[in-house]
Amino acid sequence: MSSTSQPTTLYGGKAGRRITVRDIAAAKDRGEKWPMVTAYDAMTARVFDEAGIPVMLVGDSAAMVVYGYDSTLPVTIDDLMPLTAAVVRGSSRAMVVADLPFGSYQSSPQQALETAARFMKEAGAHAVKLEGGRRVLPQVEALVSAGIPVMAHLGLTPQSVNAFGGYRVQGRGQAGEELMSDAKDLQAAGAFSVVLECVPFELAERVTTSLSIPTIGIGAGPSTDAQVLVWQDLMGLTPQPAKFVKQYFNMHEAMDQAVRSFADEVVSGAFPTREHSYS
Q1: Strand pairing class (127-129; 95-99)
Q2: What backbone phi and psi angles, to 5 degrees, belong to 184?
Q3: Residue 6 pLDDT more than 70?
Q4: Which one, of 214, 223, 228, lies nearest residue 26 by Cα?
Q5: Which among 7, 50, 123, 164 could bridge 85 via Cys, Cβ 3.0 to 4.6 Å?
Q6: Cβ(251)–Cβ(237) under 8 Å?
Q7: Annotation says 197 is catalytic
Q8: Residue 3: what pLDDT?
């Protein structure tokens, strides 16, 4: 694959160069659906990259799955910066998108630009994601004007969980029309894609067909252009996953069995053997 050629598919392609926003747009034109997963470290990123995952999100969900908080709100730029850099180093083909954490972009376009520039320059991110509709349009416009690709996020935006009164489905009734308007405004502002989280599937379908940029669903039904899950959710590490999560493996059980087997062999003296010792 040359440095300028486009991959024939987003998912499953071979490493030749990084996926770009042009590739994402081309997939929308082809009607191709594609997967996105979160990643927070180099080793996991390498596995996902080799599997052909085209886009990895270093989500502010790290607040919960990496740092042990009960929401995304406490995580900081300094928390996410080394995780983003690790995912970039661990991958060679996937586009790596960095989540801008709560409080790092809301106050002004200048603040958003300074935060996003750090993720691009210091961590090597290829794009950033931020939450919100019309209230963040100036931020989106400023970032895009500066050459920073922006992934938008509508519906249940976890950084606004306190304003929503909890983790609830968003976009029913009149709120759905407002979300549709926000999505179109974000597209006009230059966002290259938009995440739709926990919205009715009929609304997600309407938004998807109304936009020329791809939609990425999480709890938004089957009609979006792409789907994203937190990797710990899909691997079965999360004790009580949300309704929209499908668990593809019981990693909790596998890890529990492995560490118990190790511990039992240490206690019994079965490990290490000569095979695992130096002479």
Answers
A1: parallel
A2: -65, -40
A3: no
A4: 214
A5: 123
A6: yes
A7: yes
A8: 47
Q: What are phi and psi of 137, to 5 degrees?
A: -55, -40
Helix or strand or coil: residue 174? helix
Q: Please, which pLDDT band fits residue 86 given cuts at 50, 70 and 90? A: very high
Tokens of 124: 């090597």
Beta strands in the chain (DSSP E): 34-38, 55-58, 95-99, 127-129, 150-155, 193-197, 215-218, 226-229
Confirm if 127 and 216 have CB atoms less than 8 A apart: no
**Using one digit for the tens of pLDDT, what is the confidence trace for 181-201?**
999 999 999 999 999 999 999
32, 50, 197, 265: the active-site residue? 197
Per-residue pLDDT at 1: 40
Q: Are 218 and 227 in contact (CB under 8 A)?
A: yes
Single out the residue of 54, 224, 76, 64 nearest to residue 153, CA to CA.
224
> Which amino acid is present at 166?
G
**Non-local CB neighbours of 36 within 8 Å, separated by 6+ positions:** 53, 54, 55, 56, 57, 216, 226, 227, 228
Buried b (16+ CB within 10 A) or exposed e, 110-119: ebbbebbebb
Q: What is the pLDDT of residues 240-257, one digit of tens each?
A: 899 999 999 999 999 999
Q: Measured between alpha carbons, how far is 94 from 272 in angstroms, rounded to an integer?
A: 39
Using DSSP's 3-state secondary structure scheme, residue 108 falls into coil
DSSP 190-253: T-SEEEEES--HHHHHHHHHH-SSPEEEESS-TTSSEEEE-HHHHTT--SS--TT------HHH
Measured from the Cβ of residue 108, the count of other Cβ atoms closer than 10 Å reads: 12
- Amino acid 261 reads S
- CA-to-CA distance for 47 and 38, rounded, in angstroms? 12
Residue 20: count other Cβ atoms within 10 Å of its Cβ: 16
